[in-house]
Amino acid sequence: MAFTKATKSQARLRMALVGPSGSGKTFTALKIASHLSDGTVALIDTEHGSASKYADKFDFDVMELASFHPDKYVQAIQEAEKSGYAVLIIDSLSHAWSGKDGALEQVDNAVARSRSSNSFAAWREVTPMHTKLVNAILGSRCHIIATMRSKTEWVLEKNEKGATVPRKIGLAPVQRDGVEYEFDVVADMDGDNKMIVTKTRCPALQGFVF
Questions:
Q1: CB neighbours of residue 170 within 10 Å
Q2: Span between the terminal Cα atoms of the chain, in Å
Q3: 120-139 vs 70-82: helix axis angle to the nearest 10?
Q4: Are the beta carbons of 122 and 112 closer than 8 angstroms?
Q5: Cystine design at 175: which of 9, 77, 150, 179 (Cβ 3.0–4.6 Å)?
Q6: Are the C-beta atoms of residues 14 and 184 closer than 8 Å to each other?
Q7: In this structure, are residues 52 and 62 in contact, taking their beta carbons and an 8 Å threshold?
Q8: Which residues in 76-142 belong to E strands, given as ranges?
Q9: What is the pLDDT of residues 25-55, one digit of tens each?
Q10: Could you give the count of Cα atoms lying within 13 Å of 108 in the half-sphere of its Cβ?
Q11: What is the average pLDDT across 157-185?
């Protein structure tokens, strides 16, 4: 074992786009992917074909998932690598957590099998599935852009006329707590289709609003 000098090497993008429905996550992911690739873009669609509505604007191949079990995501990531895609969009990663056959449903199933109301043991069974998915994302040879829905909340605030008006805000992503910190670049999307970089390992992007 020995230490060696750190050097900056060519890396693959790991980006998360987080926002409420309608904030422009899918369009933005495709727009970024089109600048990263010569056309070899793959997209995992968990939104019943909604991404294909942009097929006239972007060149990409799609795989629609019917089950959102974490292992299905891992298989799709491996298939994208094997097929030689430069960029893989996961739209959305939230379903691996809260969708049909996702992690939360797997915990419920494990609790039911054990005939116990204690979910602690169930998480010991399900956590490795989720960890395997995260590792597949981090270890992929593709650039990866993952979208995640954010929990939303309405707040009351004063406008320029002093009147109290409601405003919708995005909160934490619908995924396991802290999963966004696995990504190199995290950006929040808002209702005005703004993309705000909230976390980045690329200093040139720090704090940017697009």
A1: 19
A2: 45
A3: 10
A4: no
A5: 179
A6: yes
A7: yes
A8: 87-91
A9: 999 999 999 999 877 999 999 999 999 999 9
A10: 9
A11: 83
